[in-house]
Design a protein that fits this description.
323 residues, Alpha/beta knot, six-stranded parallel sheet, two-stranded antiparallel ribbon, 10 strands, 11% strand, tRNA methyltransferase 10 homolog A, TRM10/TRM10A, S-adenosyl-L-methionine
Length: 323
Amino acid sequence: MADDSVKGEASAQQQRDDGDNKKTVGSNGEGAAENQTMSKRQMKKLLKQQKWEEERELRKQRRKERKQQRRLQRQNHQEEEEEGGDAQSARKRPRREVTPSSLRLVVDCSFDNLMLIKDVRKLHKQIQRCYAENRRAVHPVQFYLTSLGGQLKQSMDEKDKGWVNWKDITIKTEHYSEVVAKEDLVYLTSDSPNVLEELDQKKAYVIGGLVDHNHHKGITFEKAKELGINHAQLPLSSFVKMNSRKVLAVNHVFEIILAYLEKGSWQEAFFTILPQRKGAVAVDQDGTAVQDKEEEDTDSDSDPDPTPEQTEKSPDGQLQTKL
C-alpha cells in the first residue's frame, strides 16, 4: 500500500511538471510569433524608407519643374498686363518726345549732422520724388547726389534698398566741389541777392539738401560765400506772392527747374509746382498781386461816401444827400 501511495504521488508530480512544460512551450511560441510579427513590420517600414530615399531625386526634379512652370505663368501674366497697361496709357495720354538737358542739378547732402532722423527721412522722400520726376520729365536733367553718407544713406539702405539700382543719376560720397568745376557751380539759395533770370545749360545748380524748419537760416548762402562760388535765388518774388516763407522743399525747387525747362516760363513753372497751402498769387508787372489789384478795382467801382457839402438836413431832421 505504501508503494502504491508513493507511485501515485510521483505520477501526480509528473503530470504537474508536464503541464508546466506545456505552458512554457506555449508561452515561447507566442513570443516567437510576436517577434516574427514585429520583424515583418520593421521590414515593411524599412522597405518604405528605402523607396522614399530612392525617389528623393525624382521628387526634387518634379518640384523644380512645378516651380519653373509657375514662374513662366507669372511672367506671361505680367507681360500681358504690361502690354494692356501700355496700350491703356497710350490711349490716355499722348507720347511725349524726351530730350535730355545738359543742365546739371546737384542735391548737396552735406548737412546730415544738422538734422534729426525724422527730418533726414523727409529729405530721403524728397530725393525719391526728385528722382521719379526727373525720370518722367520731358527734358530730364543730369541729376547728382553728393556727400551721401551718415543718417541719409542709412535711411536709404533701410527704407529703399532699390536706390542702388537707380538709373540716370550720379551718386557720390564726395563734396560737390570735388565733383564739379568751381566755375560751373551756382548755389540756389533764397538768401542770395542775385535773382536767377534764365538757366544756363552749361552750369550745375546746387540745391541744399537740408530739412531744418528754418533753424539754420542762411547756412547755404554762407557756405556758397565760403567756397567762393556763384549763388542766386529763383525769381519767385517777381512772379508770385506767397502767404508763407519763400524757402521751398528740395523737390519743389527741383520740379520748378524741370517745369521751366519744359514750359519756358517761370510763372507757369511756379504755379504748376507750388502747393496750394503756400497761398501763391500771381504778381503783375508793377509788383502788385493780381488778386489785390482786383479787390482795389472792385472797391473803386462802388459808390463813394457823400461829402459834408453833399448832405443837408431835411425838415424832419433827417440827413439827405444832394444829387
